[in-house]
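Lab notebook, bench 4. The sequencing result for the construct came back, and we need a structural model before the next group meeting so we can plan mutations. Quick request posted to the team channel:

Model the 3D structure of this chain.
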Amino acid sequence: MKPERLETPLDEQTVRELRIGDMVLLNGLVVTGRDRVHKFLFGKTPEELTLPVELNGLVLYHCGPLVRSTTTGYEIVSAGPTTSARMDIYEPWVIEKFGIRGIIGKGGMGEETVVAMKNCGCVYFHAVSGAAALLAKCINKVVNVWQEETFGTTEAMWILELEDFPAVVTIDAHGNSLHDDVLRESEKVYRSFMGDNNG
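Done. Here's the predicted structure in token form:
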């Protein structure tokens, strides 16, 4: 299957046409966000904040990049996904209030976040784990950074320009989760195995 090239900002129609298992190449602006960024955004609305970029329609990357200073700004050396489940407590709010259309991470997200994605039109893009240096090569440039002094380099919000960043849709905007499907199948195999061995 040929990957679909997507350009941010994403609209709801484009997002709702995606299905679990779809391979994509992401292009355009994305923002990183780990625990500190999510905690800061939680309970607030865009009208209350002065952010460096309009989040509506963008993709949020669960990533704490390794960054190197250069004579002209910054270079992303490593940019692998972090475990998304840590952001579950905040994510439904962030999706709904800030208009996030996609999330990049690893490991999937919980039921409340899946419901928020379905209601608002948002998908989960699973990035390749263990390939942080290779993924960094898909980052054309650092456009801006927000709250680096306050949150630290890893936890700051980095605004990045991507070019053909590879990912797979594992939670779509219709409530389907490949992570849940794999878990159910694994439980079936486990129960079958234990039943066979206990018999």
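The radius of gyration is 17 Å.
Will bring this to the meeting.
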